Each structure stands twice: as C-alpha cells, then as structure tokens.
Amino acid sequence: MPADLETALLITVPDMPTVIRDTRLRLDPGAALGVPEHVTVMYPFLHPNDVGEAIVDRLEKICSETAGFEFSLTEVRWFGEAVLWLAPHPEDPFRMLSLLVEREFGTRPYGGAYDEITPHLTIGDHGPVDQMRGAQDLVAPLLPIHARATELALFQGGPAGWVKVRRFLFR
Q: In 10 A of CB 79, how many CB atoms?
C-alpha cells in the first residue's frame, strides 16, 4: 500500500443543503477528493496497513459504548483568513470522542499541531478570501442546521482521493 495513504475518523453530516455541498466543492480541496461534509474526530489516524481486525474491534467497542447525539451547526467562523467553518453545538461530544480515540490509540488530532481540539465542519480551506467571504454570506442564512451523529466513519485516502472503508454505529 502506498506510503502517502492515510486514514481519518469522521462523523459525516449527510443531508446538507446543496449550496453547502457546492460551496465546499469550490473552496475545500478535500471535498473534490471525496471527503463528505463532516466533523473530524481524528486525523491523521493510523496508516491503512495498521488498521487490522484488532483496531477494528477496539473502534467497534468504543462506538458501541458511545451514545449517538443530536447537534446543530450554529455559526460560521474562521481560522484566521485561511479556513471558513461551521461550529457544531454542543462541541463536547465531538471533543470527548477525539480524546477517547487519542487515549486508546496514542494518536493526536492533526498530529498535535494545535493545543486545543476545535470541532468544526470545513466550508473553505485556503480558498480565495473574497470567495470565502462570499461563501460565508451564502451559508450563514441557512443556519442552524440540525443533525444527528449516528456513526463514526473510517475513511482512507490520499492525493488521489478518499473513500469510506468502514462505519461503526453508536449505540
């Protein structure tokens, strides 16, 4: 398996308004690679070669002990002028799941690049700032968006694209 492949654990958010999907396709490179609307639980996770049955069993156990939960995407926010994102409320279920995975597998969200875990759904990532500001104006009136986290999805991919390879249902 190529060394540039990675995995990620995501809570996908299906049934998003078409305008958000279209905006992500224009402004978030991950969307064009097949990554759906989501809130990241752990990225990077493990190399695909390391995700064997023992890891799958541990993920199934974690998810079977985790209750599904309701949340809303309530506000448009920015990381500097580089990333436009939607804030989920409440944040704690996402943060707690990331911390649980971190403790269980020794992985760090975003490789430990940030001191705090900030759950978010990316709309634009390093796109032209004027287009991302326009996207903010387009998306904000659609909020809040209500959703339910029912599963944790294991995605695998790299520069050629991403695919969902496994799902783990919450109780």
A: 13
